[in-house]
Amino acid sequence: MIRRQRGLTMTGMLFFALLLGFVAYTASRLLPAYLDYWAVKKALVDMSQDPALSGSGLAAYRDAFDKRLYVSSITDVGRKDLEVEKVKNGVLLKASWTVRKPFIGPVNLCLDFEADSATVANP
Fold it and tell me: What is the model's pLDDT at position 98?
């Protein structure tokens, strides 16, 4: 009895390699933007819990935000993107920005990010 051969053909392997390459390329374009988002989110949470900033004005929060972004080498977000909102038990910090990454030829990836801090009571 003749058994049919099974396995991956050259065409199937090429298709799988192209698909894997496309996913890896897309991830390499998106990952830095998401790493920056997580760094900004951490900076906002740290700033909202910083006792040295509690009760400070908008300029102090923006200066602290600028310093934290500079240390993390984040250039897509700036001090103009920071919003400070006084709430009953503390302060709420928000930042929203857009990142455009070139993808393939004339196609760009446009990512809109919005990060905020948790409301923390003043010490």
Answer: 96
